[in-house]
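Throughout our pipeline, every protein is held as a single compact record rather than as scattered files. The record that follows is passed on verbatim for readers who wish to inspect the format:
___
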Amino acid sequence: MPEHLGPLELVGARWVIGDATRKDGLSLLLTPEGLEQHRRGETPALVSTEWTQLMELRMRAAYQKWQASPGAGIFGGFQPRADFGRDGCSLHGIRRDPYEPWSVRYTHHERRYKGGHVIVLKTLFNELTEAKALDRLGDTEWLGAAVAKLSPYTSRYAPKGIQLVKETIQSLGV
């Protein structure tokens, strides 16, 4: 089974977004209950949010580590949809009760993320939001099966990646 899809990686028996091994690294642990933001070496979680609290969840994922640096944010002004700057590696969305914008950051890995991996991972978050099935991200077996089907995709051609994600989640029962 593949062990990563862009910033999403299998660490032990859990799926984690971000580099959980870097000094002072921030990572997001996907649990059956929800998301937990952790800083390496610190417990308890810095932020914990249940899946049922999230109405919308989107991902930002810079392809290369330097793109997620504070100075790289200037490039975001030229490409408003690009994932540059401090929030270049983050999850964002809307929480309910109270309705408010929500976001958490994660630390970019040393490795470069493949374009196709970023496309399908972002699409997976978008499609699970639309299907009101974000809790599937906390199901280790389900997410492992999705990653196995999506990780061979490396093309930067987004329409084909989007179609692959739709077919994948449909075949996995969403």
Remarks:
- The radius of gyration is 15 Å.
- The chain has four helices and nine strands.
- The mean pLDDT is 86.
- Strands lie at 4-5, 8-11, 14-17, 26-30, 34-39, 47-50, 54-61, 89-95, 100-105.
